[in-house]
Structure formats: C-alpha cells, structure tokens
Amino acid sequence: MEIRNYINGQFIESISNKKIDVINPADQSIVDSIDEALDEEIDIAFRAATNAFEMRVIQDMDPKDKSRMMRSIASKLRTYKIEGSKILSKENGKTVEQCVENLMALLIHLITMLG
C-alpha cells in the first residue's frame, strides 16, 4: 500500500523523512506508518488544490463526462468497500460494518451529486 503523501496528482517524498505510526485505537497496535507532512508540504497541497479549483476543470466539465467520472469513482468504492472498510476500521476503531455504512453513505452522496 502506498504511504507517501499524494499532492498535485503524484506521490511525493516526505521533506522530513519521518514516519508517523497509525495506531489501532481498539488494541493500540500499529496498523502502518505514514509519511509526516510538514507545514511546507501542507502549503504545497493547499496551493495545488486552490489552483485546481481555480482552473474550474470539474465545474466546467461536460455533464456527461462528469457523470462518467463520478460513476467510475462510485464503482471503485463499491469494488473495494470491504477491503477499504477493514483498513478504516483498524485506523479509526469503528466496526467494519460501520465503515461499510460510511462508505455507502459516501457513495449515495456521490451519486446524488450526479443528478
């Protein structure tokens, strides 16, 4: 699984070269380690998101293309809902079933945005 920070469409190497342990709150075990993001990296991510928004790629996208993109995202969420829910459960302490419900709520939200 990729653990580097994803900024501006690519995974980047951490400036600090430090890792942060992700702890399972249910049993205090280490789920994995992720790259630490320094303020500079957060600023880069914020600028990239702001630029993407200002470019209006999503806002001005042809409605049919936007619909296809949203349905593709929804399809991926459905495909990986159990695997993703197991990972989320380990990092947030909710049951797998609760995480599935959260992902399904996100799916409903995405599909609602289409119409």
Task: Choose one word for the global shape.
Answer: flat
Helix content: 55-70%
Alpha plus pi helix count: 4
Order of helices and strands: EEEEHHHH
Strands side by side in the biggest sheet: 1-2
Task: List the quaternary state of the chains.
Answer: single chain
Low-confidence stretches: none
Number-wise, the strands total 4
State the domain count.
2
Explain what you see.
The chain is of the alpha+beta class. It folds into two domains: 1-60, no CATH class; 62-115. It contains four helices and four strands, in the order ββββαααα. The protein has a two-stranded antiparallel ribbon. Strand 1 and strand 2 (10-12) form a beta hairpin. The longest helix has 19 residues, at 96-114. It is flat. The two termini are 34 Å apart. The mean pLDDT is 89.
Describe the structure using short key phrases:
115 residues; alpha+beta; 2 domains; two-stranded antiparallel ribbon; 4 helices; 4 strands; 57% helix; flat
Entry summary:
With 115 residues, the protein is α+β, with helices and mostly antiparallel strands.
